[in-house]
Amino acid sequence: MGHGKNHIVNYSTYIFVWLTLVTLTSLTVTVASLDLGFLSVLVALGIASLKALLVLLVFMHLRFDDRMFRIFVLISFITLLIFLVLTFFDYANIR
Amino acid sequence: MNQLVESVVHEHVHRDDVGAKIGMWLFLFTELILFGGMFLAYAVYRYQYGDFFALASKKLDVFFGLINTLILLTSSLTMAMSITAIRRESKKLSMLFLALTIFFALLFMVNKYFEWSAKFSSGIFPGSTELLNQPKGIIIYFGLYFVMTGLHALHVLIGMVILLVMFFYLKSDVINSDYYIMLENSGLYWHLVDIIWIFLFPLFYLIH
Amino acid sequence: MMLTDIKSGNGHNGEYIDFYNAPTKRKGIFKWIFSTDHKRIGILYLVSLLTFFSVAVIFGFLMRLELIAPGKTIMDPQTYNQIFTLHGVIMIFLFIIPGIPAVFGNFLLPLMIGARDVAFPRLNLLSWWLFILGGFVAVISLFLPGGPADTGWTFYIPYSVRTNTNVIPALMGAFILGFSSILTGLNFITTIHRMRAPGMSWFKMPLFVWSLYATGWIQILATPIVGITLLLVAIERWFGVGIFDPALGGDPILYQHLFWIYSHPAVYIMILPAMGVISEVIPVFSRRTIFGYKFIAFSSIAIAFFGSLVWAHHMFTVGMSGTAMWIFSLLTFLVAIPSAIKVFNWVSTLYKGSIELEPPMLFALAFIFNFTIGGFTGLMQGALSLNIHIHDTYFIVGHFHYVMFGGTGFGIFAAIHHWFPKMFGKMYNKRNAKISFALILGGFQLLYFPMFIMGYLGMPRRYYDYLPEFHIWHLLSTIGSWILIPGLILMFVNLIMALKKGQRAEANPWGGVTLEWTIPSPPSFENFEKIPVVEKEPYDFTHYELGEEVKN
Asked: How far apart are CA C423 and CA C39, in angstroms?
């Protein structure tokens, strides 16, 4: 017990993160109106991942919690990624 | 005898905040993978019907999606601030932030309601003749759209109920500056709902 | 943990109240169905699982009877389809998947790590209620107009959105059962992280605990996929959204991908805990420390990991891309490595051990035998060329039953015989147990081995009728079921008799050294009077080599 109990995140940190999130949102909407071809989906997903990372690390306290939680989250995201990649070994090569 | 019952019954309920948090995260992973299955389906169909997806996406109103994104982001902010507040022993402020979070959640649902009814009134809903006459890629796009955003909206609803319960716990001091793990775990759930939307928004509204 | 503790039963100086008689506020059946005590929940699961098992065995028996001769014997084809679906759904979702974790995990995990309960006792009770609810929903379709689903337990698209039978209750049942399974896994992982007794480092945990840990992660990371997939099938049936239905642009192959992303790891949810049981039983009855503790522990994790990467080997004939074919074939062969590590280590533990052929040990040895056959035939199917020949034949059915019944089923029987005295404080008749073992093992081989042969010769699975050339193999197989089932009946009757008339079991009838043997049988409500401090390795039998026996 006691991990993460000691750190209280400041309001200002949260507000800063929120401002960044809003900026990234407007960025992704702006970029979407440009024609980047196949890059556009990568950019959209990249920005979304960045936003998710911010929420995970700050709002969800991963940055301040025990390392174990970060490892757990990593494991589950990697699992999902593996499912995706292995499925596309089928789809990307045939249809 | 009665005292023995009492002591025995209480023995197994021990407090372990870190344990509770581990449990919550593990549960969040199941939610993540649950949506992950649908994102996998989305990826496969977008790969197969990319052009139709871009076409169908134009029928969605980016404005609705953008507003809802901002609403959810802000609700995440107030949620996180509510926890900081209770840990700094300002119960009133914590309740205020939590009430705001619930309000934003409600706003999201209202917005969603108008968005969906607009779709329904223009004849686009699963199994409608209007939709069935479209090419298959468009049927699939709207199938995924309704199922994924629908399931997400269901999670917002569940989140609202949980946060309401937390609000009353805060009010009655069940949650306090020493014991706030329930609020923290509800917050984790709420942020996950936000994260899912962060991905849903560009994948459905911003394809060109 | 001191040797003297093992002998005297952890300082309970004879005076204690076992958990059956511990005072509670509730009366009668409510003492059970609303109890949050992990031991009571374990026994609740045991009773419910064995009930479902018996029902599914009857369905299996009827299937075999129908197949005794070509053409119609006792039922029409539609009934046959529904019966094999029910047999599969009940056996898989209601018996083998929850199987060992729900019963023995619940009962033993806190005992083995020196805790008073699991991390979330109330959640644990909720899992049992969800289990019962899921079972009820799945079985209710029997009595609804339209009859039970006839899709097979795999619910393949497009048939599952076309058939008029009650697919949705079966889907919903499986969905709820998945939830129950997830909550059990979540509970166990948290328990293992947070509630180990002082001194019990990760490498001092019993191997059964390691296997539950690996299983828990699969339950959490794979089950939601099948949850959403089955939900999507139900949504497809209700609203026709087109996600799977090819008529609306959906892709039935995608359904198979999603289904097997869970359902292949699910077979490791079934087999891993059984491997854990074997790792407990073998050292006790060989009076030797386990060979290669860390290898067995890590192989559980490796099986969980690699097992999640091989799902598409169920789909080699659906027209996947060539790249996907060889990748999944390769990965399939890789899973064999950690599995084989376990088998080698068990056999090495036996070497120069002082082997006692008590009933649990017999079942454990039979597990190794059956699992080896099941495992090797699995590798044959992992090879692309051979897979095309034997795909969807009885070869698969034989393989599956060798692993799942010959493996997990025998693991469960080993576990029941091993921990029965601990759970109920009574010893069963060992002679009867050994006779039932012989019948079960013999009947099992006769029932399932012919399936390899007829499958190789081309008998397709799930068929109601067959060509006369397969008659002899089907006949042998059905005769096998007539030996197996009396064996099962004898085994259960023997155990039930032991509950009534069995001799009182001591704290440690087998001479085991893990923590659950240090406390009285049955345990007290709080398990340990004082939480033990662990100092030794989990399978330390050096006292035995010094000539000291710890049985009592």
From this structure: 8
Asked whether the beta carbons of residue B43 and residue A10 sit closer than 8 angstroms, the reply is no
Report the complex ipTM. 0.92
Residue C16 per-residue DSSP state:
-
By Cβ distance, the residue of C185, C222, C251 closest to B44 is: C251
At A17-44, the pLDDT tens digits run: 999 999 999 999 998 888 777 788 899 9
Q: Are A78 and B34 in contact (CB under 8 A)?
A: no
Closest alpha carbon within chain C to A80? C221
Least confidently predicted of B101-105, C478-482, C528-532: C528-532
A74 with A57, same domain: the answer is no
Please check whether residue C24 is in contact with residue C526, taking contact to mean a CB–CB distance below 8 angstroms. Answer: no
Q: Give how far Cα C70 sits from Cα of C449, C453, C467, C475, Å.
A: 19, 17, 7, 10
Contact B37 C229 (CB under 8 A): yes
Q: Taking the CB of residue C347, how many other CB atoms lie within 10 A of it?
A: 14
How distant is the Cα of C96 from the closest Cα of chain A, in angstroms? 24
pLDDT tens for C180-223 read 999 999 999 999 999 999 999 999 999 999 999 999 999 999 99
C-alpha–C-alpha distance, residues A10 and A13, integer Å = 5
Task: Name the fold adopted by C3-545.
Answer: Cytochrome C Oxidase; Chain A (1.20.210)
CA distance B182 to chain A (A): 14
Q: What is the DSSP letter of A6?
A: S
Buried b (16+ CB within 10 A) or exposed e, A76-94: bbebbeebeebbbbbbeee
Domain that holds residue A72: 66-95
Specify the pLDDT at position C549. Answer: 66
- Pair (A24, A58) in one structural domain: yes
Domain coordinates of chain C in residue numbers? Answer: 3-545
Q: Where are the domains of chain B?
A: 19-205
Residues A44 and A86 in one domain: no
Could you give phi then psi for residue C13, rounded to 5 degrees? -80, 60
Strand positions, DSSP E, C211-315: none
Neighbouring subunits of A (3+ Cβ pairs under 8 A):
B, C
Q: Among B157, B150, B154, B159, which residue's Cα sits nearest to residue B200?
A: B150
Residues 6+ apart with CB under 8 A from C547: none
Residues A32 and A17 in one domain: yes
Question: Which string of DSSP letters, residue by residue, matches C319-383?
Answer: ---HHHHHHHHHHHHHHHHHHHHHHHHHHHHHTT------HHHHHHHHHHHHHHHHHHHHHHHHS
Residue C64 is predicted with a pLDDT of 96
Chains that touch C (3 or more CB pairs under 8 A): A, B
* Alpha helix (H) residue ranges in C205-251: 207-239
Chain C residues closer than 8 Å to B147 by CB: 232, 235, 241, 243
For domain B19-205, give the CATH number. Answer: 1.20.120.80
Neighboring chain C residues of A66 at a CB cutoff of 8 Å: none
- Helix/strand/coil for B87: helix
Q: How many domains does chain A have?
A: 2
- Look at B202 and A44 and tell me if their CB atoms are within 8 Å: yes
Backbone conformation region of residue C318, classed left if phi is above 0, alpha if psi is from -120 to 50, else beta: alpha
Helix (H) or strand (E) holding B105: helix B91-121
Task: Tell me if C42 sits within 8 A of C107, measured CB to CB.
Answer: yes
